Amino acid sequence: PVRVYYEDTDAGGVVYYANYLKFAERARTELLRLLGIEQSRLAGEAGLVFVVRHCAADFLRPARLDDGLEIHTGVTDVRGASVDLSQSVCRNGDELVRMDVRIACMKRADPGRPARIPQGIRAAFEAWRDVS
Fold first, then answer.
1. Which pLDDT does position 88 carry in this prediction?
2. Could you say which of 8, 10, 66, 100 is catalytic?
């Protein structure tokens, strides 16, 4: 869940489109945390990071100042070095924004170079795919 603050809006009190990407980023971080994946530890110990490789967003309805929103994240596919996610921003059950996101596992020391997702992390994503 997130709340829309003044800083999230444009002059008309409507959420500025780029802020939906921030809301989605926070939700992906929370998903990783829920799956037992601490990004700082993954980067420090394994030298791996997750980055957004692709994002397509469909803006259906606007959110406004003071709205309470929920960001839902589902795993749709798990590959060797990437994970496909579906994300939606909702208000009271109504979908406002729909996103298809691909995150890629990369070597921290060699940005731009993909790395295989470690088996334990891959299994956690697979399990989430089965429940989402």
1. 98
2. 10
Question: 3-class secondary structure for 8-22?
Answer: HECCCCEECHHHHHH
d(CA 63, CA 9): 9
Question: In this model, does residue 29 exceed pLDDT 80?
Answer: yes
Instruction: Give catalytic status of residue 10 as yes or no.
Output: yes
57 residue type, one letter = A
Q: Are 66 and 126 in contact (CB under 8 A)?
A: no
What is the amino acid identity at position 18? Answer: A
Separation of alpha carbons 112 and 84, rounded Å: 18
DSSP state of 114: B
Category of 100 on φ-ψ map: left (φ > 0), alpha (ψ -120 to 50) or beta: beta
Residue 55 CA to residue 21 CA, distance in Å, equals: 9
> What are the beta bridge partners of residue 83?
78, 103
Mean pLDDT of the 20-45 span: 95
